[in-house]
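Notes, Module 5: Reading structure tokens.

Key idea: the token line is not a picture. It is a compressed description, and you learn to read it the same way you learned to read a sequence, by spotting repeated patterns. We will look at two proteins. The first is printed below with its tokens.
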Amino acid sequence: MTTEVIDMSQTRPRVLVVACGALLVAGCSSTQPTAPASPSPIPVTTPAPNDAALSSYLEFWRITDAAGAAPRSQDWTPKIKVVATGQALETALADISNYASLPAHTVGTITRDPKVTSVTPARVSILDCVDLGTVHLVSDRNGSLLDDTRNRVERFHLRADVVPGPDGRWRVSTTAPALNEPC
């Protein structure tokens, strides 16, 4: 087997000549160099008002449900104020205060199926189907049921408005159960 040895000392000058020639041709080209493309800005994705309002609405109920289940465990006011204002805030705080004063708490799960019905820059309206399911108000003193399970409406519509606050966060401002509208 024969091994061929390549003399690199003669190959390098040819490569340099070809490379320099290519650079000269490119430099003398009639086309103007283009400015490097500026990097594309990273799109900022902010949730649409209806998505942000719906998220705040669901968070409002998550917090108020937790407060109903343990009304005397903490001061729920700061957490509820983050997601509620106006009538919705007043009603939620009054309900929690009433439960704590009985003393009583809720057990079970409420199911919700909210849908956005209208959107403006100042308000998102929501129609929810509330299913009380297994939720009950229970006395902390003796464990007895305090709600009227025979006469209560199990499933009903609830209308709510969610508005942007001065800090840009959406807050539930009104809640209106429509007990005469089963869903």
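Here is the second protein, with the sequence above and the tokens below, as before.
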Amino acid sequence: MHATRIVALATAIIVSSTLPARMLAQGGGNGAKTPKAQAPTDFTGQWVSVVSEDWRYRMILPKKGDYGGVPVSSDGRRVANNWDPAKDEAAGEQCRSYGAAGVMRMPGSIRISWADDDTLKVETEAGSQTRLFYFKDPQTSGGDWQGRSQAKWETRNTRAASGGPNFGGGGGEVINTPPIALGGGLEVVTTNLKPGYLRKNGVPYSDKTVLTEYYDRVDEPNGESWLVVKAIVDDPDYLMQEFITSSHFKKQNDRAEWHPTPCSAR
């Protein structure tokens, strides 16, 4: 898939309107079906990240003080300018950039499966992290790197792309595309996060951060399947406004290519 097509695909998902989110309690009329049974789209399987924007921030370690594209506040700049990976290592906090607000931007593969009928699980190669999305009451109070994630299904109208901002921040070209029919998606809101980094060079987010993510699957006529994850980071401490990104993943048919790596501060 050409990079411009990927950006346009993300724009179609980002800029177009959605129906109000509602649960799909269909079949039998009693609302007793589990979230797994209600799933409007199958997100399970193994997906590899396709870095189509922000390459220099995601594929290599940015220099200290380089927080281009992030609406960092004065306090956030102060923290970023004092980033010290050796200090993080000494404190046993090598995973600061692998928390929920940063890990999906890391290159590598992810695996999505059902932990049980009410909980979706996302495992990452990068940092060997595990995220749990709870459709019922989260079974954690958070306070760790992955926080407390509440999930719900969405249904959507067919969306049309009409151009718009490139939320990826990488300067990719945005082109018009025909309407893309989407059967449904996933909304995840994560709170109670341990403070971490949006990027590996110490661009911070605080424990007051609210991370809202929208997951969409798009199946192409050539048989390829793509996962698009729009993330909105809202942090009153270190950001002047919401930080919005769109990350792309391609479905992998071969699950043998799976190489989890530990967290690294550098």
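Summary for the second protein:
- The longest helix spans residues 3-15.
- Confidence is low (pLDDT under 50) at residues 2-8, 10-29, 158-181.
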